[in-house]
Amino acid sequence: MSGKLKHVRIVLIRPNFAADANWKAMRKACSQLLSKENVRCLSEYQRAETRQLVWELCHRPEVSSHCLISGRGESDDSPELVHHLKRYTLSFLLGAVYGSRGPTLTTPAVKDFLYVHPKVTHILDLGTLTPVDIFPFLALVPERWAKWKRTVTEIRALVEGLYSTLLSTVEKRLASGERAGVFLEDVILNADSYGFDNRDQFM
Q1: Sequence-distant (≥ 6) Cβ neighbours of residue 160 within 8 angstroms
Q2: Max CA-CA distance within the chain?
Q3: Would you say the C-alpha torsion 4, 19, 16, 132 has a positive or negative sign?
Q4: Which of helix, strand or coil describes residue 27?
Q5: Which element (helix H / strand E) includes 130?
Q6: Spatial separation of the C-alpha atoms in residues 139 and 135, rounded to whole Å
Q7: What is the DSSP letter of 104?
């Protein structure tokens, strides 16, 4: 049951997920990303990120206070080790998927991720929204009288803005004839074979 409720909330934030065809296309693309051959190709990159993480833990274990402020001015009181691990994880994923790593916590893409995704995970928790999952008729209430709809609209705009910016960096790189050999480049160049037919599906 909880899985179904989360699915309804995800669709509110990412409407493209509602289409079975879109879901199948993304699953096909992700299975290619996680193939043994592709994972082996990422091993050197992961080792480089790991070396930076170890260096930071040895030489700069304390995170500067300005690094603990999100792009929207919100502080983060997590242990400093957690911040280093967040940077490491996000940088690896950004590099593998978009070809744009995050060398510091103040890198715009890292800051945006650390701001947007906690909001997404929070809204997926039961009790944070009006139970439209259980009572679908609540979706008929106009937005001006439904704060939860305004919240979803705001978070959807943040999510779409984040992914659209990252997607644009890949599109510009391909348009200039450059390749970084990353996941989203492969998806864009082989969109037809995966089953994608519009830009929004890449986000």
Answers
A1: 203
A2: 56
A3: negative
A4: helix
A5: none
A6: 8
A7: S
Per-residue pLDDT tens over the stretch 73-129: 455 555 678 888 999 999 999 999 999 889 988 899 999 999 999 998 888 887 787
Cα 132 to chain centroid, rounded? 25
| Amino acid sitting at position 155 | I
DSSP 170: H
Q: What is the dihedral of CA 171, 48, 88, 63, to 10 degrees?
A: -120
Q: What are the tens digits of pLDDT across the range 113-152?
A: 999 999 988 888 877 878 877 887 888 889 889 888 888 8
Cα 89 to its chain centre, rounded Å, is 12
DSSP letter at 140 equals: G
Residue carrying the six token digits 């995704």: 117
Rounded-to-integer distance, Cα 91 and Cα 97, Å? 10
Q: Burial, 145: exposed, middle or buried (Cβ in 10 Å; 0-12, 13-18, 19+)?
A: exposed
DSSP-derived 3-state class of residue 69: strand
CB distance 182 to 41 below 8 Å: no
CA dihedral for 50, 55, 60, 64, sign (positive or negative): negative
Residue 39 forms beta bridges with which residues? none
Can you tell me whether residue 176 is helix, strand or coil?
Answer: coil
Domains of the chain, residue spans: 2-202
**188 or 14, which is more confident:** 188
69 bridge partner residues: 75
157 Cβ contact list (under 8 Å, min separation 6) = none
